[in-house]
Amino acid sequence: MSQKEQTLKLIISHSKEYGFVFPSSEIYDGISAFYDYGPFGVELKNNIKKYWWQSMVQFRLDVVGLDSAIFMHPKIWKASGHVDAFNDPLIDNKDSKKRYRADELIENYIRKINLKIEKEIKKASKRFGSDFDRDKFHKTSPRINNYLSEIKDISNKMNSFLNNEEFKKVKDLIYDLNIVCPVSGTCNWTDVRQFNLMFGTKVGSVSDEASNLFLRPETAQGIFVNFLNVQKSARMKIPFGIAQIGKAFRNEIIARQFIFRMREFEQMEMQFFVEPGSEIKWFEYWKKERLNWYKSLGISDSNLKYHDHEKLAHYANAATDIEFKFPFGFKELEGIHSRTDFDLSSHANETNKKIQYFDPKSSTNYTPYVVETSIGLDRMFLAVLCESYREDNNGKEKRVYLKIPPVLSPFKVAILPLVKKDNLPEKAKELYHTLIKDFNCYYEEKDSIGKRYRRQDAIGTPFCVTIDHETLENNTVTIRDRDTMSQERINMEDLNNIIKKKLSFNC
Ligand code: ATP
Fold first, then answer.
1. What is the Cα 480 distance to its own chain's centre?
2. Cα separations in angstroms, 487 against 149, 214, 415, 479
3. What would the pLDDT profile of 306-328 be if each residue is shown by its tens digit?
4. How far apart are CA 484 and CA 464, in angstroms?
5. Closest CA relative to residue 335, chosen from 383, 265, 269, 255
6. At residue 1, does pLDDT exceed 70?
7. Atom 18, ligand 1: which residue's CA is nearest?
8. Rounded-to-10 torsion of CA 55, 58, 63, 69
């Protein structure tokens, strides 16, 4: 098992052992690609939502919130293009009986060529030492140029075949590139078929009269169909955004890699409505804003990158992904799309209603253009775990801790009486009831103090406060820092300010 696979495995087992994420329906042997969030997971998840909501809605004057229903009129999904085009091309390997997304098999092949380019660059940088000019080498090396034209050729072919629904040619491309199944190692593939990712269900008590509905595959359509309701009721002027957090459902063909790809997940989406013609300016604005949001949480630059799309979705005129370096490589964490007026116009056509904005500046009516930012809450949760998982080994014992940004930590402070007697628990509970009004606190009196510290490290609590006999005499406590393990004796009254400082918002 590679080091990277090992890291993901450690994170999965840590998540289960410490009550972050459980496989859904586990006592019935689980159900693939569904997960439950445990007592510490739900706190972390809520904190991520809160941080996003505050920075995207509450701290801004130009974005308002919405919470639309999961079930919507089935015609919405026809107008949005999901009934006809929300498909993945799937292919099976006849020997392993494993199913894959045909485009992912090809993209993984391209990823391997990119790794070869990185290797060439590393080798050259070693050879040339401090004189090495990465950009120049990238442009002039004949080998790298060959790799780049190979990538271009493959992706052009793939995009054109997929766009034109020429699935026989997609299969031939997989054969030509000699792409084998990672499990069986063979090239024995079935034909490529389209598979719609929406879950269908019925509503109504009499089965033959019941209507067919879909569970929403994205939250965005709830925003589009409420555009006029929100704009008028909140008296918003363009440019402005509507944000919402909610569940989305996709019948993913392959759901691997833990909570990265689930069949039921949560999205945090914002649609920003702008004047036609200004969308690319706003697209660039949101690209920067969103990257800065991750940086404000201390996520390192080297683990984040943009991936601009060459193959655009049917509704977009510009698109990029913000990718995070998960243990299984750089993968999409958030999509930013310039969606033109596609959605509002489609709903206007389907309903025969006018969905337009009257611009008082120019005294004209127009259909606004839209820039969307869409982040997967569960993927962000996984990114936070991957970024913060740490193992320290001082030779004697291993310490595992989660260096979660304090603003996201499930608990901000653990309050621990040194021993379970001598009035220390009573004093500690008194402190708990004072601090809990401002911060989420954890109280624990079982086990040795060392064990309790380790447990708080494992769930990412930035501070532990210990109440001992001296506290009873002079109202001082020790405060221990999760990351440095340093301890300091302070006055109990100073606690609130010290913790508050660590929790400040940076975005
Ligand atoms: P992918 O290419 O990984 O399937 P996508 O491009 O289909 O993702 P979008 O439709 O742009 O994803 O959805 C916006 C965000 O929702 C994604 O960036 C991702 O964070 C999240 N998301 C999408 N599908 C899933 C899923 N199956 N499980 C968890 N999160 C998801």
1. 31
2. 57, 55, 14, 6
3. 999 877 877 889 999 999 999 99
4. 12
5. 269
6. no
7. 334
8. 100
**DSSP reduced 3-state for 457:** helix
32, 209 Cβ separation under 8 angstroms: no
Using omega within 30 degrees of 0 as the cis cutoff, is the peptide bond preceding 239 cis?
Answer: yes
Residue 211's pLDDT band, with cuts at 50, 70 and 90, is: confident
392 phi and psi, to 5 degrees?
Answer: -115, 140
All structural domains of the chain with their residue ranges? 1-70+212-402, 87-196, 411-502
Kindly tell me if the per-residue pLDDT of 507 is higher than 70: no
CATH topology for 411-502 is Rossmann fold (3.40.50)
Tokens of 163: 């766009």
Instruction: Please determine, for residue 184, whether its predicted confidence score (pLDDT) is greater than 90.
Output: yes
Cβ of 258 closer than 6 Å to ligand 1, yes or no, is no
Least Cα distance to 310 among 99, 103, 82 occurs for: 103
pLDDT digits (tens, 9 = 90+) for 226-271: 999 999 999 999 999 999 999 999 999 877 789 999 999 999 999 9
Is 412 in contact with 439 (CB distance < 8 Å)? yes
**Residue range 31-48: mean pLDDT, rounded:** 96
CB distance 244 to ligand 1 below 6 Å: no
Query: Using one digit for the tens of pLDDT, what is the confidence trace for 452-473?
Result: 999 999 999 999 999 999 999 9
- Tell me, what amino acid is at 153? D
How would you classify the pairing of strands 99-101 and 87-92? antiparallel
Tell me how far the alpha carbon of residue 257 lies from the centroid of ligand 1, in angstroms.
13
CATH T-level topology, domain 1-70+212-402:
BirA Bifunctional Protein; domain 2 (3.30.930)
Angle between helices 167-176 and 102-128 (to 10 degrees): 40
Q: What is the 3-state secondary structure (H, E, C) of 54-93?
A: HHHHHCCCCEEECCCCCECCCHHHHHCCHHHHCEEEEEEE
CATH class held by domain 87-196: alpha beta
Residue with tokens 């127009």: 366
101 in contact with ligand 1, CB cutoff 6 A? no
Whether ligand 1 lies within 6 angstroms of the CB of 376 is answered as yes
- Name the residue of 261, 322, 377 whose CB sits within 8 Å of the most ligand 1 atoms, as the mutation to test its pocket: 261
Q: Is 476 left (phi over 0), alpha (psi -120 to 50) or beta?
A: beta
Ligand 1 pocket, residue 261 CB under 6 Å: yes
User: What confidence tier does 134 reach under pLDDT thresholds 50, 70, 90?
Assistant: confident
Cβ proximity of 471 and 30 under 8 Å: no
Which residue minimizes the CA distance to atom 11 of ligand 1? 335
**Which two three-digit tokens encode residue 140?**
């002039």
399-456 confidence digits (pLDDT tens): 999 999 999 999 999 999 999 999 999 999 999 999 999 999 999 999 999 999 999 9
